[in-house]
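During the reporting period the student researcher (J.K.) took over the structure-prediction task from the postdoctoral fellow and processed the backlog of single-chain submissions. One of the processed entries is reproduced below for the supervisory committee.
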Amino acid sequence: MNIDELYRLYTRSRKVTTDTRNIVPGSIFFALKGNSFNGNEFALSALEKEAAFAVIDDAKYGDDDRCILVPDVLQTLQLLAAYHRDQLKIPVIGITGTNGKTTTKELLNAVLAEKYVTYCTQGNLNNHIGVPLTLLAIQPDVEVAIVEMGANHQREIAGLCAIAKPNFGLITNIGKAHLEGFGGFEGVKIAKAELYDFIKETGGTIFVNGDNAILHEMLTSRGITKTVTYGEHPGNLVSGSIVFNDPLLTVSWQSAGSSGRTGTNLTGSYNLENILAAVAVGLHFGLSEEQVHKGISSYVPGNNRSQVIQTSSNTLICDYYNANPSSMQVAIDNLAAISGGHKTLILGDMFELGNESEQEHQRIVDYALKISADRTIFIGQAFYASKHNQKGIFFPDIQSAMEGIKSSPLSGSTILLKGSRGMKLEMLLPLL
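J.K. obtained the following structure tokens:
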């Protein structure tokens, strides 16, 4: 069966799934394989649960005429998504970057939804499987799509662009993350710039933080001039600044003929550029000041990204969905900038730093201990290697940290929780 024929089957329900637990009657099940599972084994189960068809790549599991045998299920899913993208005559905004891409994606969606029917990447579906699923979830009434693209190796963004074909692009920033896979910081720059390369080749428009020297160099070295700039400097098309950050942000912004002052549900001075990106995109797509303001002010962060939670004992800044040296440093800076009394840092190990892990963890320890905090707690084996520095409190794992906090409770403090997702810092919440 060719992609054109498969697409006609897809349009009957416009629903696909890769998980039999999420079968929608009439959908198409794609039997993906992984290191520890073979989706082909679940094809008949998917059909029993009322999937219309099951796409498989192993003939021995095709004992039903509703099974569609293809050479490679993943490749077929990607080809189908690319084919669907070709049918969509709408703006598609591709977003990548080291830090802030999910928050920026959510802000863009919140703003643009004030005028358009939008669809954006759900959760963390931003990889070679998630991007195709995102595209295939775009229904005919959608007017603007926002597709997040993640990567930890070079050429991944290029591959995702070939599927999503964005005609607008935004790189939030370039920082130290997934250094092991990218081959160092220069490798990160090369990988993220694959979005710029695609947008240039296809004649699209780049939204860019005009104050970011690294992004500016990446654009100028490619001769890209079709840009919409935002940032703190008034020379940008959209500029803005922080009015309050205590701990929630209020920002002011201005552009030619329009301006605004917006309270948000976000914490972190580092979110200013994400907010200004949403303003720039909203204005570019013809939204009014009031629509931009409403979209930003109504957005409530989730998934432990820049969330502020008030418990009976403390104010928590929950930012532990992920962590790398760049995001860790700005989160520490933000806590230092917040006015008020007692402050506590709880920092968990940063993953995927390769040969630079020891150096980067030591650098963060040194950096964190310079700010005025009542308690600075480090959790994880990488941080624990620096326990010789007696100014901090070090625990080798989350369990020992829980015991330590139980024996010496925290109260009346503004607490930053920051670490890689695998550190499971959420286990501390009942103690805080």
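The committee noted the following: DSSP finds 15 helices and 19 strands in the chain.
J.K. will present the remaining backlog at the next meeting.
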